[in-house]
Specification:
The chain is of the alpha/beta class and about 220 residues long. It contains eight helices and nine strands. The strands form two sheets. The protein has a seven-stranded mixed β-sheet, sandwiched between helices. The chain has a two-stranded antiparallel sheet with strand order 4-5. The radius of gyration is 16 Å and the shape is globular.
């Protein structure tokens, strides 16, 4: 792996001031960057005082978006392109996860992935294919990028929380229902919440549900 592929981005140290006992890795959406999602850390820091929050920038620059990053380009929106796209940055994300666990002397059961949009697709792709189960995955406003392949490729089944806006204009709420059904069919433990009236965004209810889920899974 070349050094240029090593992910990096902002972080927020544990509120306790001590060494981290758990990790939350935020995976941002298309055209965003890690700085956007690390802003969620203060919402959850008091609930998770021993957690180190990390928000790596996706490996690719996003055309036409200053400071924007992408996990893969959205040049095509077909299911085939999505299924291929989610694999593009998976090796870099897995390497980042491995590095962070090793650096902090932690195991997978002390790590949760929290994705938004394209970042949720990455989390739901990478998490279940890892050899050891993660503590959990929180997916905001996302979808299963390659549902057909997951059945053949699933290795572990971390618990999943899916949250979606009922009026999402980018990824319709049907994506939540499809992911919910697809994961449950494979034996995943899934909790799902739809926020009525919410677009392609986060709200206080979603953040609160995310905090409750992470406290339960990382405690």
């Amino acid at each position: 792996m070349t050094h240029s592929l090593m992910l990096d981005g902002p972080s927020a140290a544990p509120a306790s001031g001590g060494a981290p006992k758990s990790l939350v890795i935020f995976l941002h959406g298309y055209g965003s960057n890690g700085a956007d999602l690390i802003d969620l850390a203060p919402y959850w820091a008091q609930a998770l005082p021993d957690t180190l929050f990390l928000a790596p920038d996706a490996p690719q620059p996003c055309d036409g978006v200053p400071y924007g990053r992408q996990w893969w380009p959205l040049t095509s929106l077909t299911p085939q392109a999505r299924a291929a796209g989610v694999r593009v940055s998976a090796p870099a994300l897995n390497a980042y996860i491995d590095t962070q666990l090793a650096t902090h002397g932690l195991t997978e059961d002390k790590l949760a992935l929290v994705g938004f949009s394209q970042g949720t697709m990455m989390a739901l792709h990478v998490g279940p294919r890892r050899a050891k189960a993660l503590a959990g995955i929180v997916g905001f406003s996302g979808m299963l990028a390659d549902p057909e392949a997951l059945a053949a490729e699933v290795v572990t089944k971390p618990p999943v929380l899916l949250v979606h806006g009922g009026l999402d204009e980018v990824l319709p709420v049907a994506a939540l229902h499809q992911a919910d059904a697809g994961l449950k069919a494979l034996g995943f433990e899934v909790a799902a919440h739809v926020s009525p009236g919410l677009g392609h965004s986060l709200d206080e209810i979603g953040l609160r549900l995310g905090a409750q889920f992470l406290i339960e899974k990382l405690a």
